[in-house]
Specification:
Blueprint: H1 19-25, H2 36-46, H3 59-65, H4 70-84, H5 88-120, E1 126-131, E2 134-139, E3 148-152, E4 160-172, H6 174-177, E5 183-184, E6 202-203, E7 208-220, H7 226-236, H8 243-273, H9 278-292, H10 297-313, E8 317-319, H11 323-330, E9 333-336, H12 338-342, E10 348-353, E11 358-361, E12 372-374, E13 377-378, H13 384-395, E14 400-404, E15 407-411, H14 414-425, H15 430-436, E16 439-443, E17 451-458, E18 461-468, H16 470-475, E19 477-480, E20 487-488, H17 491-503, E21 507-515, E22 533-542, H18 547-558, E23 562-566, H19 571-581, E24 590-591, H20 592-596, H21 600-609, E25 612-614, H22 618-630, E26 635-639, H23 645-650, E27 653-657, H24 663-668, E28 671-673, H25 678-718
Parallel strand pairs: 9-23, 9-26, 19-22, 23-25, 24-25, 26-27, 27-28
Antiparallel strand pairs: 1-2, 1-3, 3-7, 4-5, 4-6, 4-7, 8-28, 10-11, 10-22, 11-12, 12-13, 14-15, 16-17, 17-18, 18-21, 19-20, 21-22
Helix pairs in contact: 3-5, 4-5, 4-8, 5-7, 8-9, 8-25, 9-25, 10-25, 11-25, 13-14, 18-25, 21-22
Length: 732
């Protein structure tokens, strides 16, 4: 029996192939699935559907590796010399400092390994498959390429799959792509070079089904999945030494060489003069070596960093690794994810366009506080058109919005949820509207027709309320609502306005209605939607920037720190948000496909001038961090999804989101933001600079003192003076 083609071997990627061709290549029928014999062959060939666990260093070797440092060697040598001279207290302090630093490093590496374990915990435990013509539940580990898997709302996707059939299927892919809005899934092929976020016909291992159902065929398992690739990248990335540790390491080599050279020269000079015995001369040279070694330096650094940790915690910056404190003080460039860090990660209606007016909507996310303004002034008496748009927003809606622990949250589609606070800002009450015009029928939203409609009956009669994609809604409208009465539809104007809102990075919805529709309640279908709807207008929604993030970006720029946005979102959206935040020039943005076309040298040149990168995959983010570091900049990288973890680990300091961040990113990061706010990074950098300056000042005080102690003995040897050393005498 021929083996099934391994994922990725095919000349055409899975997402670019028609579903029928995939069935042929993987030799499976969707109605029957694989039989037991074929499954066993493929399982033996591809291995279990779990992420590979690389070789782990044993605890003892990890502990011993912490002492592999030139400064540690010097300190240990000093400690043993102190023991030879019977200076027990000094020796104990030196050894205690060495052991403490070794234990801290040991614990930190242990946390890094937990990041890999966290990725493995994202995998599904079971999968619903079709095998031998029967539907059954099997352990997800037993899945093989070619398995036909059934997906329903609430399922965790067990492997990478090419979708064959979908019914209103949407998946939560924020952990992989960084997008806050669930991804709508289709079955048609997409371009070969489509990034992960644009592969609408794929379902990825570790993500969740938010709504709908679907059928997919497994094309990658275990380490071959997108999650597996990230897992391997994370394992391969080596954490960098912090700037201060690199300087201390360099200092260790310098001081060791200096002590050796000075010791040999002074010993030879003293022996040539002949005024000292061999034992005296040896003790003097040892005394110089011990006095020049800054044995208090590690303890001083550790204490200073620990104080910095406490101060940063008060500013919502939780430090997981002590050296990260001083790294923050050296940061010259912050690479930030967009969603949730620079933005609220909450959809919000920001723009409204009607036949007669354009409005702006203020507020923060899902909170109902805010205003609807026209020409910068709050709207007084609401036009009938806005009232009708508010009614559509409240009644043609299946999401739920509620307040939990003082914060507004949405259950369901975030876009639908954002319509509730918009209506609230118009002064409308959801419960009152629902009681006045209850729903008697409806057409649910599906990706195939891209609209939702409800059939409601109120005191004034029946009405059809509709919302959906602007082009679909416009195709079903022949009139537009005006202040006085419906008028002929100006389609071109609304198309231009829709393009304008989209260019601002907004997601656009069309709202329409039809009073007294000639429809019968019961079993309404998509094809029943009339072509004579009355267009109410367009609403533009977006995940708005945090107000405090705008100030923090400005503050970073004033402090000589460059801010770069790296996001998985679309290029237009990224450029629009960046402009609002003051990042880059407000125009230039580079997409992931453009990054792929660049070699390392070209990318290194690109990052010197560009500060906005969109549609970035985990590989792109990692390459961008490396390119910036190649330009000799100290990089801080923020993120919240699994896709950010390799870049966070590679950066000089990784910053994870404490509220919405995954366990993977938290374990890979050196710092966690308790409030998911970019402004907290700016505050932490200030504290880091203070700590760095304090360490520099302490070293400037400590080192001259040590050098002076050694110089006193050296002068005595050079000029044949009496040694400033008194031998211990015992009286019998």
């Amino acid at each position: 029996m021929n083996e099934v083609a391994a994922p990725g071997i095919a000349s055409t990627p899975w997402h670019a192939m028609p579903a029928e061709d995939i069935e042929k290549q993987l030799r499976v029928e969707r109605a029957r699935g694989l039989d037991a014999a074929e499954t066993a062959v493929r399982l033996k060939s591809h291995g279990p559907n779990r992420l590979p666990q690389g070789k782990k260093q044993g605890p003892l070797m990890r502990l011993l590796a912490q002492f592999n440092n030139i400064l540690i060697y010097v300190l240990l040598a000093a400690g043993f010399v102190k023991l030879m001279l019977s200076l027990w207290l000094d020796a104990s302090i030196i050894f205690a400092v060495v052991i403490l630093n070794g234990l801290l490093g040991f614990l930190q590496e242990g946390r890094a390994e937990k990041a890999l374990d966290s990725i493995r915990n994202m995998l599904s435990a079971e999968a619903r498959v079709v095998r031998g013509g029967e539907t059954r539940m099997i352990p997800a580990e037993d899945l093989v390429p070619g398995d036909v898997v059934l997906l329903e709302s609430g399922d965790r996707i067990p492997a990478d799959m090419r979708l064959l059939d979908v019914k209103n299927l949407r998946t939560e892919e924020a952990a992989l792509t960084g997008e806050s809005v669930p991804a709508e899934k289709l079955t048609l092929p997409v371009p070969v070079k489509a990034t992960v976020g644009d592969r609408e016909n794929m379902a990825f291992s570790g993500t969740m089904v938010v709504s709908g159902r679907g059928t997919g065929i497994v094309v990658a398992t275990g380490g071959e999945t997108e999650l597996g690739r990230i897992n391997q990248m994370l394992a391969d990335v080596q954490m960098l030494e912090t700037p201060l540790l690199r300087q201390i390491k360099k200092f260790g080599y310098v001081i060791t060489a200096a002590i050796a050279v000075i010791g040999v020269l002074l010993f030879a000079w003293g022996h040539w003069l002949g005024h000292m015995s061999f034992v005296e001369l040896f003790q003097a040279v040892v005394g110089i070596a011990v006095s020049m070694i800054p044995e208090g330096l590690p303890a001083l650094i550790t204490i200073t960093l620990a104080i910095g940790v406490q101060r940063m915690a008060q500013r919502n910056a939780i430090i997981r690794r002590l050296p990260a404190v001083e790294t923050l003080g050296s940061v010259s460039r912050i690479c930030s994810d967009k969603t949730g860090t620079l933005t609220l990660m909450e959809m919000m209606v920001t723009s409204v366009v009607t036949a007669g007016e354009a409005y702006e909507v203020t507020g923060d996310g899902y909170a109902p506080e805010g205003e609807v303004k026209a020409n910068g002034q709050p709207v007084g008496n609401l036009p009938e058109t806005l009232v009708l748009m508010g009614r559509v927003s409240l009644l043609c809606n299946d999401a739920e919005i509620f307040r939990d622990d003082g914060k507004w949250k949405v259950e369901g589609d975030p876009t639908e949820g954002a319509l509730y606070p918009f209506a609230a800002k118009l002064g409308m009450d959801r419960a009152a509207e629902a009681a006045a015009a209850p729903r008697i029928d409806g057409i649910p939203f599906e990706s195939e027709h891209k609209f939702m409609a409800t059939f409601n009956r109120g005191a004034s009669g029946e009405m059809l309320l509709v919302k959906g994609a602007p082009e679909v809604i416009l195709d079903h409208c022949d009139r537009q609502q005006t202040a006085s009465a419906p008028a002929p539809l100006d389609r071109d104007r609304f198309m231009r306005e829709g393009d304008r809102l989209a260019a601002q990075g907004e997601r656009v919805l069309g709202l329409a209605w039809l009073p007294a529709p000639s429809l019968a309640a019961g079993g309404l279908k998509a094809e029943d939607l009339p072509k004579n709807l009355i267009l109410l207008g367009l609403v533009g929604l977006m995940d708005p920037p945090r107000k405090e993030a705008i100030d923090a970006v400005r503050e970073c720029h004033g402090g000589g720190i460059r801010v770069t946005m790296i996001t998985g979102d679309h290029k237009i959206t990224a450029a629009a948000i960046a402009k609002m935040l003051g990042i880059g020039d407000g125009k230039t943005a580079v997409a992931g496909t453009e990054i792929e076309a660049m070699n390392d040298a070209a990318l290194q040149d690109c990052v010197r001038d560009v500060d906005v990168f969109a549609r970035a995959s985990p590989e792109h983010k990692l390459r961008l961090v490396k390119a910036i570091q190649a330009n000799r900049q100290i990089v801080a990288m923020t993120g919240d999804g699994v896709n950010d973890a390799p870049a966070l680990k590679k950066a000089d300091i990784g910053v994870a989101m404490g509220i919405k961040g995954t366990e993977v990113t938290k374990e890979a990061a050196g710092m966690i933001l308790a409030d998911d706010n970019f402004a907290s990074i700016s505050a932490a950098v200030k504290e880091g600079r203070t700590v760095y300056n304090n360490i520099e000042k302490a070293m400037l005080f400590l080192l001259p003192t040590n050098i002076a102690q050694g110089a006193v003995i050296a002068v005595a040897i050079l000029f044949a003076f009496t040694l400033p050393i008194t031998a211990r005498r015992c009286c019998g």
